[in-house]
Amino acid sequence: MSAPLENLHEAVSVIDAAWVDADQGLGRSELLSVNAAIGSARRALDALQARVAAGIAHESRPELGAESLAKQAGFRIPAALIAATTGVSTGDAGRLVKVGEAVAPRADLVGDRMPPKYPGVDSALSEGMLGAAASAVIVELLDRVRVGRDADEVADVEARLVERAVGLSLDDVRRLVKRAEMLLEEDRLEAREEERRAARSLTYFEKDGNFHLYLVTPVEEGAPIRAALDGYVTAQFQARKDEEGAGAGAGAGGADEDRRTVAMMRADGLMLFCEHVLDCGASVPVAGATVIVRIGLDDLEAGTGHGTIDGIDQPVSVAAVRRMAASGGVIPCVLDGSGEILDWGRERRLFTPAQKLALAERDGGCARCGLPPGMTKAHHLAWWKRDAGPTDLSNGVLLCESCHHRIHDNGWDIRIDDPPGTSVGTTTTRRGTGVNIHARVWFIPPAHVDPARTPQLGGRARYDIAA
Asked: Would you say 438 and 421 are in contact if contact means Cβ atoms under 8 Å apart?
């Protein structure tokens, strides 16, 4: 029996055993177990379906004409046949075909068998480590960059992507792939920025009593817009929280209660910003509206490499970094340069802005869920009051408010380890030495979630192929 079938049978047996008493309701441990089994079953089905999709595509190739399997079944293309029978979009079905073809056995011109196009993806898919969607994202990148590149280089990227993608959400796999593409095509980064800049546009029109805006602009130019609007939204939520706290004793609700969604707040913020520009008479509360662009000192001096903007996945060229550094409201953060002392021990309770900048370089935002740095706070691992924990970078982690409460309320632990070969210890940092940006943040679940308490990788390293 093949590995996908074995995984499928094993997963179904777990689900079947748990479902015997499903009418009485599933307990928490059963819910977690069944959820994991469903995930395993889905990945096993993905592996089987990708191979079937590739077979359907092969039997529907254009040269078969009227003998095409898809056409005989009443469909123009194989993706339409697969989409109709599985309920996915035609685009998703097409990606499934690409995955199946990328992992299918091949033959050379004389008929001898060859390994699959991407053996690493094939192995991870067959063993149930990756699903079809994540595999498709990796395959699409490899197909884009393989032309004109050394086969060993492509194979190395494939192996690193597959290794890092296991256990990630699809969103994080996309971030991982974006960083891999950045490393592979760094020399084309500035040219692509110029192409995007040439395509920038802002259109607007009126319809049904509403004013519609559609903006397309490069990420480095959109960063201040996002930072300002996110800052306004943060301030509105803080004001809502303060009002709820002040009115806790008088009862909740009321006609004046702020029920706006995030999208509504962004619209209100943009309107207020424009009013402010017109007459400087509007008071616009903004929290944490700062754009931080980061780059290595060596890259900045040499004019090579790339930079990153906090809260934005797309990397930017050195030229874009220099342009942004000349703009107002942008903090250029040059790594490895001399700066203020970043460790304060027990001399102060709150982390300084400089410390938060350093933590953001390591964690990339909320170390658990990935929200941008502007929506996080620096928290002590060993609590300041209970554990006499120092306000040092080795004792700090960036978390959003929601993840902070979930971690502490539900019994999770956090560990920070420096990778092998680094000079900074795993849990201590000398005062003034800064933070090891290559350190890894691990979230350790409580026993009732995972009896083995297997650490889960967090922070930037979760989706950064270079970490």
From this structure: no
36 contacts: CB under 8 Å, gap ≥ 6? none
Q: List pLDDT tens digits, range 46-105.
A: 999 999 999 999 999 999 998 999 999 999 999 999 999 999 899 999 999 999 999 998
- pLDDT band at 289, cuts 50/70/90? low
In the chain, the amino acid numbered 186 is: E
Per-residue confidence at 423, pLDDT binned at 50, 70, 90?
A: very low
Cα separation, 331 vs 336, whole angstroms: 16
> Residue 107: beta bridge partners?
113
Beta bridge partners of 106: 114
Nearest C-alpha neighbor of 378 from the set 413, 363, 387: 363
Query: Which residue's entry shows tokens 């703009």?
Result: 327
Would you say the pTM of this structure is higher than 0.70? no
Question: Which one, of 35, 49, 44, 47, lies nearest residue 10 by Cα?
Answer: 44
Amino acid in position 223: A
pLDDT at 445 over 60: yes
Distance CA 121, CA 139 (A): 8
Distance between CA atoms of residues 102 and 122, nearest Å: 8
d(CA 140, CA 181): 11
Sheet of 440-444, strand order: 413-417, 440-444, 456-458
Query: Is 341 within 8 Å of 386 (Cβ atoms)?
Result: no
pLDDT at 129: 94
Backbone angles phi, psi at 440, to 5 degrees: -115, 140
Give the sheet arrangement for strand 308-309, strand by strand: 308-309, 291-296, 330-335
Q: How far is CA 204 from CA 88, 201, 211, in A?
A: 33, 10, 7
Please report which helix (H) or strand (E) contains residue 272, including its range: helix 262-279
DSSP 174-206: HHHHHHHHHHHTGGGHHHHHHHHHHT-EEEEEE
Q: Residues in the chain, how many?
A: 467
- For the chain, the average pLDDT equals 82
Single out the residue of 40, 65, 68, 57 nearest to residue 95, CA to CA: 57
Tokens 């700066």 label which residue?
339
